[in-house]
Specification:
Elements lengths: L12 E6 L3 H9 L1 H8 L2 E6 L4 H6 L5 E3 L19 E3 L8 H4 L5 H8 L19 H8 L7 E5 L10 H13 L3 E4 L12 E2 L4 H8 L4 E5 L2 H6 L6 E5 L2 H7 L10 E5 L2 H26 L1
Parallel strand pairs: 1-2, 1-4, 2-3, 5-6, 5-8, 6-7, 8-9, 9-10
Length: 288
């Protein structure tokens, strides 16, 4: 891993930096060949260490793992030019915001890269595998066929109230499953789930081998989309549902997209206020 300032740029290569989400890096890798054919030059990817496994998924060897400290703060080219680093994201590339007006997120990336609208999404050629050590750790809890994995965190979406996850967990437990929680922040662990520390790569491997995955909409959903035997994706609003759930032409029938309506949160909020009111009212009546 090197400092991004120390990279020696070659005049015949396009340097594409992806410092944001897993899904962003996956889309860029998927369209690498189309980008190279259109622009007549090789694309060299720059990414943070936690995204390196996506390069393996696409068989890409022309990349550099960089120190993440400066990835979003130094000045980059706002266009894709040979010999320069372009931060390939809508907030940085010229006219990037207009690309987001596309029918869906995948089409937005196709437009960002200047590709034809009919450019095909390329699926990964390899997926992370469970190591024997990690597999033993999981099977000490239960067999893979009896494991439900929940992923309640997302960097690009507002997280759900824990009540939502606890209801999902309760249903899974009642069906006889053990529920493992994939989180970075331990404070986000819902009740009755089992916390197992894991890398992103291990989470991917577990997701495509366990009985079921329930996840808030995040980049991990894109990566496991084609391989999960049962994936339930939770959205927090209809706009994101329509923008993100219709991207793939080869629909996986094992994927279920669900919008959690805001009135669920509202009801929980009102219920909490009611109980607090009753409690305060009781104290007032007791001591008045």
């Amino acid at each position: 891993m090197i400092d991004i300032d120390d990279i020696k740029l070659e005049d015949d290569k396009y340097y594409i930096l992806s410092p944001y989400g897993l899904g962003d890096t996956m889309f860029l890798c998927s369209f690498k060949e189309a980008f190279e054919q259109k622009n007549g030059g090789k694309a060299h990817f720059l990414m943070k260490p936690s995204h390196e496994f996506i390069m393996k998924m696409y068989g890409i060897t022309d990349y550099t793992v960089c120190d993440t400290a400066k990835l979003k703060v130094i000045k980059y080219s706002t266009t894709f030019e040979k010999g320069k680093i372009a931060l390939a994201h809508f907030s940085h590339i010229e006219n990037g915001e207009n690309c987001l007006k596309s029918d869906n997120f995948m089409q937005a990336y196709i437009k960002l890269l200047g590709l034809s609208e009919d450019t095909k999404f390329q699926q990964p050629i390899w997926y992370p595998k469970l190591s024997e050590e990690f597999k033993k750790k999981i099977e000490a809890i239960n067999s893979l066929d009896n494991i439900v994995l929940i992923c309640p965190e997302a960097s690009s979406n507002k997280m759900f109230n824990k009540t939502i996850w606890e209801k999902e967990i309760e249903r899974a437990i009642n069906d006889g499953y053990k529920v493992i929680c994939n989180i970075v922040d331990i404070n986000n662990q819902p009740k009755n789930s089992i916390y197992v520390p894991m890398t992103t790569e291990e989470a991917i491997a577990l997701a495509i081998n366990c009985k079921k995955v329930i996840s808030i909409r995040s980049g991990i959903c894109d990566i496991i989309y084609f391989k999960c035997q049962d994936l339930k994706v939770l959205y927090n609003n209809y706009n994101k549902f329509y923008y993100l759930s219709n991207m793939y032409s080869n629909i996986n029938p094992n994927v279920k997209d669900v919008v959690i309506k805001h009135n669920i949160f509202y009801k929980d909020f009102v219920k909490t206020l009611y109980f607090k009111y009753q409690s305060l009212k009781g104290l007032y009546n007791r001591y008045k």
